[in-house]
Amino acid sequence: MSTGDMEKAEAITAAPQRSSTSSIEAGKLENTEESFEVFKRDGTSVDFRTVGWIQASVIFLKLIFATGVLTIPSAMFVLGAFPGAVNVLGWQALNTYCAIIQGNFRNSHAGCHSIADMAHHVGGPWLREVIGGLFLVTFAIVAASGIFGSSVALNALSNHAICTNYFMLVATIAVFCLASVRKFEKISWLTWGGFISVYVAVFIVVSNTHRPAAAPQTGDFDLGYHAIGHPTFVAAITSVATIFCSGAGTSAFLPVISEMKRPRDYNKAVYLCMGIVTASYLTFSLVVYAWCGQWVASPSLGSAGGTIKKVAYGIGIFGLLVSACLYVHVAAKYLFVRVLRNSVHLQSNSLVHWGVWLGANLVMCVVAFLLASGIPIFNYLLALAGSLTFAPLALGFPGYLWIYDHGHWRKGGALKATSYWLNWLMILLAVFLTVGGTYGVIQQVIDAYASGQISSAFSCEDNSNSS
């Protein structure tokens, strides 16, 4: 063998080693070896990695968009238009930052499929169980909000023909069927349709300039629009948690990365998604609040009366179902991978594979149904998710992930040191929102039961106009 041939052979042998080592040592580069990913491409197993970055961005959009745009206007009524707008911009910027932190960490550390895997990497088995439990509870709550929203839509379309809980059961069955589709790629067409349906439905409502449905239908009335509100602490923290929750579902992005063709394209998908979400939330919520004032409904599609309300819910119901479907799907996918990881059944079409997958979806749907029936007020479900689970999961923990990878910045220059302490400040903010927000939501739920706004769990009242 010639000297040139020997050099070529050595270069070929050394290349993968350099790539793997540099990825692990630097902690910031994507390791392209198959061992880095949970789902393998070996030509014989079911290929899960089929999602392009545009598809991923639309999935992210649908994971976030529907529930937030339907509840932020009523939160603005509590806070006032200006503080509400500041909250929308501030929380969405922070949620985007946390989404990027989580994606970069995932793409820097091999074998991370979910946020629970990342917790195991930085804190061991006990932290994995805590974060994994938070993840499941979080997406059970937001799935419950999607099921409840769908039942409100069915109530509106049928003039409350049957008990609300029967509508919730119908919605839950539909969500189970949609969520049981196995791959994100296969449900991506649902996300396109779901996003468009909610967008069009909200646009129909904001285009209607007539009198709000809940306002007196004759004579003058007090709109109740305020640039700056004067809420109690309980009402304010609940509204703040609601707005935060509207874009905090970024931990659900992580299982999608594992099914992307090119995980390194994740950041592009996030920036596109969050740019559209932020602009839409700000414009739609300000317009709905300016039109409805204190008469805004939650979900906000109910703010329009009569035919407009039916048309809006008729178009938007598909988006509400798809949102709940995605929430159930990401939680079930976590359970599925957790049970079958390192098993031959993970990427096969075996009976065990399908049994675990369908069982995980069924469990999440049942829990979501029970939550939707127990707390049948849309805003309170989202505020509970925002404070009790999203605050530590989507705000505090990403701050710690950043600190884990950038601990040396504490002794760096002024800019690096400032960044380091700001991430600690983000963790403290998460603690405050968890404690204060959870207290606020629990107090408001107690007050709602005491005042008769909620008569009892599993009751048949129509709560579509609760705010």
TrEMBL record:
Keywords: Membrane, Transmembrane, Transmembrane helix. It comes from the Eukaryota. Pfam families: Aa_trans. Belongs to the amino acid/polyamine transporter 2 family. Residues 50-443 form the Amino acid transporter transmembrane domain. Its main location: membrane. It is found in: Membrane. It is a multi-pass membrane protein. One of its GO terms (molecular function) is L-amino acid transmembrane transporter activity. This is Amino acid transporter. The chain crosses the membrane at residues 59-82, 88-105, 126-147, 159-180, 187-206, 233-257, 269-291, 311-330, 351-371, 377-403, 424-442. Residues 1-25 are annotated as: Disordered. Residues 1-10 have a biased composition (Basic and acidic residues). GO terms for cellular component: membrane.
